[in-house]
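Figure 3 (text version): structure tokens given as input.
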């Protein structure tokens, strides 16, 4: 969660020097190179054919979809607002897991997850003046594709090491990421800044690779539904970073909403399926 909580502030920094399309392609390409070096160094065999459709879902949701949609949203949305909206991700991931893997969390689990989701929806509507914005649309779409990628990755992590799941998903995207980055940079050349470069490097190494390595490992150990609810802590951590790193000013509703979802975490982690 610490790695993921820095994703939105790092994206805001990276957007100072790179356009949104170039940023997404570059972070994917750099992360894929890092993952590819690890796979080559350890001589990891290519995944079995049966695992490749699942890896394609991980790539589409986690490597491409979520980074692109959230980056587009952060052009007009504050990191604090985006972080709280993404507080819905645990619920959507738990729902995807129930549909895809047949997991059956308890009624108490669902009540707590729904309570946390309701707090996030109320915050979003209140912050948007009663109407959703285009940025909110990007964020809600990002929730759906990311939940699918997390669910499929958690399922695969029971059959192969979690770091290989995200590693191969990144490598499979490399043939698309490199030309996409070249085209995006040709259309909108980068204007590198210190913040921009630091943000890009963190997104590639921390958010796109290392954070997902331990995340998929955790989901394999405790199950997708329970692990997903730990992400309810991410908005609160991101709010802290948005103040410390970006100097954003929070409304009273933001920390109150984040605190409410933390209570929901405690409940979901005490339940059993």
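Below: residues designed for each position.
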């Amino acid at each position: 969660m610490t790695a993921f909580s820095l994703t939105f502030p790092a994206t805001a920094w990276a957007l100072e020097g790179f356009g949104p399309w170039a940023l997404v392609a570059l972070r994917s390409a750099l992360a894929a190179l890092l993952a590819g070096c690890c796979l080559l160094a350890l001589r990891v065999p290519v995944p079995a054919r049966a695992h490749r459709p699942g890896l394609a879902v991980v790539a589409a949701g986690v490597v491409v979809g979520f980074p692109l949609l959230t980056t587009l949203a952060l052009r007009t949305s504050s990191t604090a607002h985006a972080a709280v909206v993404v507080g819905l991700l645990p619920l959507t991931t738990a729902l995807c897991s129930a549909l895809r893997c047949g997991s059956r969390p308890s009624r108490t689990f669902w009540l707590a997850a729904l309570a946390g989701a309701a707090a996030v929806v109320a915050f979003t509507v209140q912050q948007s003046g009663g109407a959703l914005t285009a940025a909110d649309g990007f964020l809600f779409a990002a929730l759906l594709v990311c939940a699918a990628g997390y669910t499929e990755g958690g399922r695969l992590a029971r059959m192969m090491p979690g770091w290989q799941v995200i590693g191969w998903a990144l490598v499979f995207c490399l043939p698309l990421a490199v030309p996409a980055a070249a085209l995006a940079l040709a259309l909108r050349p980068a204007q590198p800044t210190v913040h921009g470069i630091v943000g890009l490097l963190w997104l590639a190494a921390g958010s796109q690779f290392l954070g997902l390595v331990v995340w998929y490992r955790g989901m394999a150990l405790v199950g997708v539904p329970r692990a997903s609810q730990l992400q309810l802590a991410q908005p609160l951590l991101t709010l802290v970073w948005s103040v410390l790193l970006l100097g954003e000013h929070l409304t009273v509703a933001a920390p109150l909403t984040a605190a409410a979802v933390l209570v929901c975490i405690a409940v979901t982690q005490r339940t059993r399926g």
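The mean pLDDT is 84.
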